[in-house]
Amino acid sequence: MTTHAIEARNLTKVFSGVPAVDSLNLTVEAGEVVGFLGPNGAGKSTTLRMLLGLLRPTSGEATVLGHAAGSDFAREHVAYVPGDVALWPQLTGSEAISMLGSLHGSMDNAYRDELIARFELDPEKRIRAYSKGNRQKVAIVAAFATRADVLLLDEPTSGLDPLMERAFRECVLDCQQRGQALLLSSHMLSEVEHLCARVAMIRGGKLVKVSDVAELRTHVGIEFEISGTIGDLSGVVGVSDVSPLPDGVRVRVTGSPAPLLAALSSQDVTGLRTREASLEEIFLSYYDESTSPVS
Amino acid sequence: MRRASTSVHALVWRQIRTSTVVVSALLLSFVKVGLVSFNASGGVTGMRSMQVLLKNPAISALYGRAKSLPTAGSLVQWKMGMYLAFAVAIWSGLMATRVTRGGEDDETWDLLVVGRTGRQPALAIAMAVLAESGLAVGLVTFLTFLSGSQGTTDSLLSSLGIVGMAWCGGAIGVLSSQLFSPRRSATQVALSALGLAFILRMFADATASNGWIRWATPFGWLENIGAFQHRSVVWCAPLFLGSLAITFIAWRLQEHRDIGIAWWTRADRSQARLTWLKTPWGFAWRERRSTFGVWAVGLVALGLTFGYLTNALVQFCRSDPAFVKLLNRWGYGSMVTGRGFVSEVCVIMAVALGFLVVTMLCMVATDQVQGRLDLPLAFGTSRTKWMASAVFSTTLTTLTIALCCGVATWAGVVVSGTSMSVAVPLEGMLNALTTAPLIAGVCVLVIATTPRFSYIIMAALLSVMYIIAVLGPTLSWPRWLLDLSPFYHLKLVPDVATNWGATIVMTAAGIAAGALGWARFVRGDLAN
Fold it and tell me: What does the pLDDT look like over A98-123, one tens digit per residue?
């Protein structure tokens, strides 16, 4: 039987009779970065907190490397970056990182120093003197420096400037190459698009889609902007959203573009441009329609 | 602008309304119970026999001065007034640092001051809300006295004293918030100042020659108001004007500093000190060491003061056989000797040690509510280890402070000119600690159940338990109710042997409550 780095089986959490997470099934493998997307209040943080063992599932099961979430084994192999870092204000950044490393039991000191330099963190400042972004950096440095097998990241780049976001992306890619598993909850769709081959979308506590980003694009389709004197394409197989342009027409094609190309072959086409849907458009397409949850 | 001010006003009220209701309810209950106890103590006739007690300087130091106790109100004012005022001042100080320095620490204050209201008006509104809450508890006190058919003037003076001390505590809290950061430091300084003021009043009442010290402390001014005694309304002036002056200074201090930074803030940068950060056990100590320092200084000072009073009491007893007779009749016969008095002091110290246990343990709840436990627990520490290290650290600090307090009491006794073995207060303090396991166990259970309100619940519980132990026997309350109070089971060690039966039951109950709390803390959700 395969041991997944992260596995949620029918994971459910109910608060005061209201399901925050409902029968969620998800796996993340070693060396994989999975994006976890969803609007505010969709249940992303609740799911991550269950995977950390901070919240107990109402039903279902969450495991880390085959061990129950929150167990001694799981805790030794997990590191976490919350979206809003809360630490003791009197500690310095260096003390906080060192403390978290000691509690975790392992820390790559050379890599920690490299990360401190890469994120331009002043470790001698006290937590209370840090900005939100710098507090975020403390948690990021601590989490990556542990070299934990599993990283749970809950909107880790909120508060970071674009340069630091780039440094963060490099760290994630390093982790991926080292075979670490990452579950990345984020609102930064461009970030997820850059880092994740696979995404899981959650809405109202239910997982609505788990898929490769490439596969998701086929759901939304490819946009064609065709210049020239173009006849009616609305009847062509796979074509939708036909809208006129000053010098032609814009259409969206779901599935194979062959029928469209066949229809265009007999027309006066002077230009043709294609554009793949961004993750943002995919995201919006999923949340605009009432999608049934994945099984 | 007016609408913005109303919103700020409502927001600040929201932060303190629950505790205002709890404190008002406690005041109402204590005053009511006190009024009832007057009749249970034999009414006017019974109080006449206490007349001789009031002349004793040690008793005056404990409860304040009184010439006679002709009414129920006068008994309540004398026996409880000073301590109720002290509790109200501490509460108000806590609320003040919570609203002002706490707001600046968690940056919610920013939202209030950047709006249309502005920073100075926002602080003025916060101060006004604190003043209103003080007025609310004063009004409850006034109505409670009035409903007990006490005179309007005395009821008013007594409640004015409560309002004045609430304002004074609030003003000191707001001032401390301007001067010190973070909130914990501001709170510790404010409460230390109030503790010092209370101890000064005790010294002032201990001997006639010390009387001038009363001028230097708000508790002295409170005593000089003389509700149900000599009625000197003029002494309300320093209490209220002093509070207003401190408030004004605090208000001006905010004007000349950056929001989020106090006048004396520890440097923003520091060399890393990693000694106590390697394990949860070490960190539990590091987190609590400043609280330990403040409590150690406070309780050692209190121990010294109590010890210093011993000689005055003993000398008085020797000179007045009628007083000894009275003490015997009231069940305080043991107090005629230095040894007996120190034993009584140790029983009182049990309450202070109970609050120390609660303060230390409730740091776990504060950390949880503020989301600070997420990272350590996500990075490998188990909840069991975190709670166990908090309990261990609390146990060690409480034991250390109890022993220091015992030694300080002994030193006070020796300085006052009475000879005594150091073993006497030490045995008494160890006896006082027999209530600690129960208090700690219940506290763990409350933290695991309602972390957000754990401190206020435990503080209310301890206050009620102490009142049951003090007034229950006099008022012939049912035995089962008395048995509920851990303080009721404390014997006057070393003159009387420790109540081992009760100690075993209390310890077992504490372990059971702690185990339940532990199970809930470990298995339940860690909600912020």
Answer: 999 999 998 999 999 999 999 999 99
